[in-house]
Design brief:
There is one protein chain. With about 325 residues, this protein is mostly helical. Helix content is about 45%, strand content about 5%. The strands form two sheets. It has a two-stranded antiparallel ribbon with strand order 1-2. The protein has a two-stranded antiparallel ribbon with strand order 3-4. Strand 3 and strand 4 form a beta hairpin. The radius of gyration is 28 Å and the shape is extended.
């Protein structure tokens, strides 16, 4: 009984420092997302400030032209290690719509530290018009909104045709071929049932339309065989393998201020790290509080146990 109590209290406290569960949805079909080792994983995990700053740079130079970050204020960048003057300089690079003024007119001004990252488009219609009908999602909460979190974002950014290993492509082709064959078998069974019913009607002298026999599917041997829409780009880790966003990252796409080589994988990892912080900026505080609660409960359990021994010492 005593061991069970101790274990239960410890488990309760440990749960306070663990990340929240992801969305309760079924896993999408397709290859498994590559799993990276993130500095923020685990009950003692913390954000890597250097990676966060590089991720911000990737976002600003690559992603911000299409994707917003509406829930992040410039002042929040202090968490990344930036000074007040640096934050003011970042904010001033953006133009923010404000107002109305004394004449009732809206006006534009340089951004301030208290402002939030402005949206790249004035509205969804403008966003869709500039992106072949697809509206780029806001990235503020993307790392928490998708199963897999930072791994999901990194997978999408590195899941394009020229970036994924041949083994992953082959597994997709085999998986889709099997799916088509299974569907064909189900359609064929349904066809046979309809054909039997059709023959019965014909024998009874009734008029009936003969059912169409399903076509034997061809094996999937290339990306073209997947039948993606013309406006889609192949992505191994996106549901359905077709994504409106073209490949955004290329070797040396940015020049990191700290001299880190800007490989595609490095940029993808850094911006995924940054977007995890954007979605959960208080992660370190939450985990720190969980550890303190755990320590308190362990000490409190010891005190209770000592008190129990003292109270019941004469009985034992």
């Amino acid at each position: 009984m005593r061991k069970g109590l101790l274990f239960g209290l410890a488990a309760l406290a440990a749960s306070a420092s663990l990340p929240l569960a992801g969305p309760a949805v079924a896993a999408e079909e397709g290859p498994a997302l590559p799993k990276l080792e993130w500095s923020f994983d685990g009950p003692f995990g913390t954000y890597d400030r250097q990676s966060l700053q590089r991720g911000l740079q990737v976002y600003r130079e690559v992603c911000s032209s299409c994707h917003g970050l509406k829930y992040v204020a410039f002042r929040n960048l202090a968490d990344l290690g930036y000074s007040e003057d640096e934050i003011k300089a970042f904010a001033a690079e953006y133009t923010v719509t404000d107002g109305p003024d004394d004449d009732g007119e809206m006006f534009e001004r340089p951004g301030a530290a208290s402002d939030y990252f402005p949206a790249p488009f004035p509205n969804e219609k403008a966003a869709a018009a500039a992106n072949s009908g697809a509206v780029p999602p806001d990235l503020s909460l993307m790392a928490k909104a998708r199963a897999g979190g930072a791994d999901h974002i990194h997978g999408i950014l590195t899941g394009y045709e020229d970036l994924v290993p041949d083994a992953v492509l082959q597994s997709i082709f085999e998986h889709e071929t099997m799916k088509n064959e299974e569907k064909y078998e189900a359609d064929l069974a349904e066809y046979n049932d309809k054909l039997e019913a059709y023959n019965d009607k014909v024998e009874a002298g009734e008029q009936a339309r003969r059912p169409l026999e399903p076509v034997q599917p061809q094996p999937i041997e290339s990306i073209e065989d997947l039948g993606l829409a013309e406006v889609s780009n192949f992505n191994a880790y996106f549901p359905g393998y077709g994504i409106a966003m073209a490949q955004p990252l290329y070797e040396d796409g940015v020049a990191y201020a700290d001299g880190t080589p800007a490989t595609i994988d490095q940029m993808a990892a850094d911006v995924s790290h940054f977007l995890m912080w954007a979605a959960e900026p208080k992660l370190e505080d939450r985990k720190g509080a969980g550890i303190k609660v755990l320590i308190f409960l362990v000490v409190f359990t010891g005190v209770l146990y000592a008190a129990k021994r003292k109270v019941w010492k004469d009985v034992h």
